[in-house]
Amino acid sequence: MRIKIITLICVLWMPLLVNANQSTNGKWLKNQSQYFLNKGDYPKAIHYGVMLRQLGESNHNATYQLYAYIYLGQALMMNGRQQPAKYYMNKSLQLALALHNNSALCSVYNGLGLYASNVERNYYRSIDYYFKGINTAKHCGNTHLAAILLGNLCNVYYWKQDPEGLKYALECYALGHKQRDAYAIFIGANSAAYMYYLNHNYTSAIRYIQEAEAVMHKNDFYDQSLVYNLLGKILAGMGKNDKAISEFKKSISFSKTASASSIADAYLGYAHVLMKQNKYAAAVPLLYEGVKVLDKYSNVIHRYDLYEAMSQCFEHLGKYEQSLQFFKASQTEKDSLFNAEKETALNEILIKYDIERQKNEVKQTKLEILQNEKQLQITMMGFFIVLIILVGVFYLYRRRNKLYLQIVRLNKDALAREKMLEEEMKQLQRDTDKLDTKYAASSLTNQKSEALFIKLNRMMRENRIYTDSLLTKEKLAEYLGTNRTYLSRVINEQTEQPFTKYVNKFRIEEAIRLLSDPQNETPLKAICAELGFKSLSTFYTLFQSTTGMTPSQYRSRAKET
Hints:
Layout: H1 2-23, H2 26-39, H3 42-59, H4 62-78, H5 82-99, H6 102-118, H7 123-139, H8 143-159, H9 166-179, H10 182-198, H11 202-219, H12 224-237, H13 241-252, H14 260-276, H15 280-296, H16 303-316, H17 320-337, H18 340-432, H19 446-463, H20 473-480, H21 484-495, H22 499-515, H23 524-530, H24 536-547, H25 551-560
């Protein structure tokens, strides 16, 4: 019973201990904050953002504080808490600039751009922030953040109903494929579909939105509402109203995780389809729902469009007072969003961005040219080095080959001279046959020593006793009628070689003679055995030390001469 109680206590306390450990792990808290922000679960993103901020403040870790401010600013804004959101965004901007953290600064500009468009109704300031973020991201090589910023920039162009954002959408799309970044591809495809939709190019729009949908499902991205809303708009533009309504309903079903602007736009698209069918009374509740969503999260995106649509509905329903009321409201929203001064400021921003982009493209082109030139130089250097090595190897090969051939010729000449010497030795042998071949046991005179050596050489050359693999000093001394001691002394005095080396010299000479004959095809193993060698390795070693070549190499060179 006690064991069960202890086990139960451990089980109950284990999650608390794990959570306590994780709450002190800054990287884990940072990842959790970012994860729930990306998933659209803003309360949880705020929860972990607060924990990350507290950890950073207690540990005096400015980096943790910086990212906590970024996540809190964006999550609070999307949750409709605008005042604290702007406070954290301003704090994050100051800290990112102080720490010179360009990667974080990109995220800060992204958050400020969202705040300017969603809360302050200032599309032009939003665009300015996005361009700053894009340039910063490109300078620090963060293509993922650059793609996100380009996607958000395209959203502003869509809200402005300006198809000029297409070039930025395609830039984002190309960047995603170049870097193999699935989320960048998703954002780029989705943004391109928006722009083609504004241009009434529904064929291209449907192609891009279907790619975005496929990437979304494959990678489990959370922006389902955005995709289905746009798909509904494209289908409505193609006159497929029933399918469009189905997509709008699907988009609205993701209201818990989607942004307020996406849901409001889905209600607006749904209402527009009903208005085309003259179902104005049915469209009004949908438009009210869209306004309600925006009010809940203090979001201004699409408010102008919703008011304008409501004015049209009430006009067709004969409710002119309400129609006028919403018309005035729509004009107020419109005036706050668009004016000539802001358009001029926007054009200046675009000119600056295009100049900066052209400078970056020229810089990138120069860098690529330098890299190509450097690569060419390295390749040419490598080619010349390889060429020099090949020439050196070929020269050494030719030189060694000539040396081998010269050795073979010398050996052949030596064999010819050897035959002449054999004839002379036979004559000398006839002269020494008169000498007594029996020697005293006490010592050898010089004359007797020379006579014994001549007899030994004759026995070696004529009887070829060196071919006996079992030949020993005792056996050879017995053949000569002397003893092993005298025999060793004679060999040492006459050749300055030990017995084994003296015998092997005859064997190698015979091997050279055989291998110098181009017609001789006797296998090397057979030659080795016939000449009295007990092992092939000994034969190879002695032959190579004498000629500088292995037996097989010598045979090949002999056939060339």
